[in-house]
Prior knowledge:
The complex is a heterodimer.
Chain A lengths: L2 H10 L8 H11 L5 E4 L5 E5 L8 E7 L4 E7 L4 E7 L11 E5 L3 E7 L8 H5 L8 E3 L4 H7 L5 E5 L3 E2 L4 E4 L2 H17 L7 E7 L7 H10 L3 E9 L17 E5 L5 H13 L4 E5 L8 H4 L7 E9 L7 E4 H16 L16
Parallel strand pairs in A: 3-12, 3-13, 13-16, 14-15
Antiparallel strand pairs in A: 1-2, 2-12, 4-5, 4-9, 5-8, 6-7, 6-9, 7-8, 10-11, 11-17
Chain B lengths: L1 H8 L9 H13 L3 E4 L5 E4 L9 E7 L4 E7 L5 E6 L11 E4 L4 E6 L8 H5 L8 E3 L5 H5 L7 E4 L4 E3 L3 E4 L2 H12 L8 E7 L7 H10 L3 E10 L19 E2 L10 H14 L4 E2 L9 H5 L6 E10 L6 E4 H16 L5 H4 L2
Amino acid sequence: MDTERLIGHLCDINALVGNEKEASEKILEFFRPYCDKAWGDPFFNVIGYKKGEAKNPKKVMITAHYDQIGLIVAGYEKNGFLSVSNLGGVDTKVEGASCVTIHGRDDVFGVIGAKPPHLLSGQETKKNLKITELFIDTGLSDDVLKEKVSIGDPVSIVSPVVKMKNGCLSGRNMDNRCGVAALVLILEQLQRLKHDNDIYVIATVQEETGSLGAMTAAYNLEPDVALVIDVTHGDMPDAGKSKCFTLGKGIPVGIGPAYHRQETNRLLEIAGNERIPTSLSVESGDPGTESWAIQVSRLGVATVEVSIPLRYMHTGVELVKVEDVEMAACLAAKYSAGEIGEIRCGWNQEMLL
Amino acid sequence: MVQKLMELTNLDGVSGDEQDVRNYILDNVKEKSLKYCIDSMGNLIVKCNSSGQNPLKVMLAAHMDEVWFMIKDITEDGKLKFITAGGMDSRILPGQHVRIGADKVPGVIAQKSIHLQDREERESVVKLKNLYIDIGATDRKDAEKYVNIGDYAAFASEPVLFGENRLKAKALDDRAGCVVLLELMERVWPFELYLCFTVQEEVGLRGARIAANRVEPDIGIVIEGTTCADVPGVKEHGQSTVLGKGPALSFADRTSIGDRELLGHFVKTAQEEKIPYQWKQTATGGNDAGRIQTSGTGVKVITVSVPCRYIHSPVSVLNINDLENMKNLVEKALGKLPSLEGGIKK
């Protein structure tokens, strides 16, 4: 399957944060053809295992989260309307005039409307809709609605994946199905790469509400090194240049306290050898990704991160360049197959204990 | 009728370039071998078959255009700056899919991600001048390969049937009117009936004026999609119309006052035929009736509308029963028009 279609299929899957069970089986099917073993854990993290050739192989963990942000049904209003709350960091500005699926007893289609503009006061027209002012119009009678939808049902945004110019794709769930697509590509490439390490490719859950999937997966696996693939901000004209990365101009690699310096250097060296362009993504603390949680799992895990630049994060029109996904996957695959030295403290090259 | 409406809403008809919609309607007109003309602005005027028993001349109008965007500039980094037309709620623009120009280039309306917005930016509505369309172009030169300044753009939104008899689509205002006119096309009427599919309603009711001047009708009936605000947080008296309560009749809006006699005739017809109807509760908005009323030596007008929630957005919603009832009411009321003959003859 080509990468574009792979991303498209993955974005179509619904995996609202905390409601990943059904999706986990679908993700598993994407992993299975390329793995020595693939399974889901009790938390619905999906794991693909590639056996290493060494006698005492080191363990490499590669994660990308597959959960998505959305809404959650907060209450019934009269005449088939529902009030909502957020699941993860939702930008209410982009929810107005969008279509949704309520994952109730059956999937129920709805639209998010709002008070029409001609009825707004001057003040109201300047303020954005708050989450408490959003409601879903289901078009159902109240009795039928109560039968089909319960308070607490998750709600996903409906938005198609559209092919844009220059090999770009735009749609919902690019954050972080692009990372998951990279995982599939890594597994595919590892079939052709000789590797000593045991490699565990893991699509994780519940990143959007605090990297809980990565936390449990890392604890369970006790890897020697971990590589996180997630999206980062792409270049947007109204955003500052320092935090954003131009699409198609190299793979951002994380630098900062969240990342293991020695392993990051090895990653950059591999990128250099493979002629994969990179740039450095400076994070002074919590980068807002799974690295922050994995790094402090059990006795600590040497963690590195590669990113996929993405514009308009947490909207239904997240925009990525397909070749960035492929390059990130290529870099991660080569890194995971590479020889891992003794893991030391990165700064002074000496073990302190 | 619903299938046709869905097909119609999926076409782009912007004020000044209604061609795709007009061609769709024209195909239907040609099938029935009716006489028609297309004027200099693009209005499509269809003459229905008439038995000639009644000397009245009646004009039915529905506009083909929808709210739209136009590309006004391309930035150095290949983003498209745009204007909107037709009264759009700028609160709902970020995150929408659009298609641009004759090639229907896909684009998305965007602003920087929420993570990079400061508190004030998160809470306030983005100004139009700060929004842009991204088509995936790398820079201005690259963008210019696909898009020109002056290209039109429209919302990309697939029609969906959902809930109980609901249709979600863009451009229900006023493809709903267009489809009702198509439904009335086949009958032989006792009077002269002209179906006018008008242009440029959204930018100032411009097409209807010259169409009315050409037809010179005695009576003008505008078939519209109108605001509907029966949503949480709006008091009943401000709801304008309510979904599912039948077609709405307007006493008046910003552009015209409904003819009392005609309104009475429509109400009487609705009662006799047991067709539900409602009064539009607000006098906001305006439509082609405003221009038709003052054309020539004056025309008696009335507006009949189907309520549309979230009008002028890509997710407008109507109740199919309202649409059917609107068609029935207009058809029956027209059928009974001769009884009015004395009262409204010039």
